[in-house]
Amino acid sequence: MKNWLLAARPKTLSAAIVPVLMATALAAHQPTGIVWPIAACALAGAILIQIATNFINDALDFKKGADTGERIGPIRVVQAGLIHADAVLTAAYVCLFLAAMCGVPLLLRGGWPLLAIGLASIVMAYAYTGGPYPLAYHGLGELFVLLFFGFAAVGGTYYVQTLTIDPAVLLTGFAAGALATVLLVINNLRDVATDRVSRKRTLAVRFGPMFARAEVVFFALVPFFIAGAVAWHRSMPWLLVTLAALPLALLVIVRVLRADGPALNKALAMAGALQWAFGLLFVLGTVL
Fold first, then answer.
1. 96-126, pLDDT tens digit by residue?
2. pTM for the complete prediction?
3. Whole-angstrom distance, CA of residue 109 vs CA of residue 42
4. Which of 280, 254, 175, 156 is nearest to 222 (CA)?
5. Fewer CB within 10 A of the end CB, N or C, for the chain?
């Protein structure tokens, strides 16, 4: 059980949970209010897809040679010999099937837009690391995260509850996706040397560490500007409470600018804390 928990990477689940919470908080102000069973299905589906993506990444990165004994990040169960790659892939497919089952009530309520989002999310969970053109190996990881852990997660969760969409929701999706992208970029920056050897062409490999650090600065700060824009658009001044997380964002930036290699694992943990802090403060500001 401990090994499977490692494979699920619980510290990364903020990328799935926070966008759903932010969207649900915004939905509370609409005439429909929060549709709790639908919100629960959206949350469960998002978590299952995130876990499936982590499982697939664990297994296929090992098979492709990206995860070796020289890895400096957290333990990967397949590379460490804790669980066989085929077992991890089977578990991923089970998670994707369960996610599809969670999507049935969403489809019945939201119609074809939810079908499109759901199918795309399931396909891309595999295509991120697998398939003939794995996104993570061709510098498309940031785009994937922004689209699916930002716009799709927030927009889809909001739409399936309210059956409407507006610019404030899309901006919120960008904020959620940006915070998730910080996690990805720090991970890629830490692994730039081993990724280069394994021909994993992340943007950090393509354009160098300084570009990756600039990405972190941008994606860590832009959510706070977005919160201000949403506060103005929705007349929710309490959303400015998210500024309380700004010092943590600055700490993440400083550590990323100064650290390298294994020292970036601390920055990764701080970036996860930043996503939780911003997301929960966003929910608080929306409720107030």
1. 999 999 999 999 999 999 999 999 999 999 9
2. 0.94
3. 12
4. 175
5. N
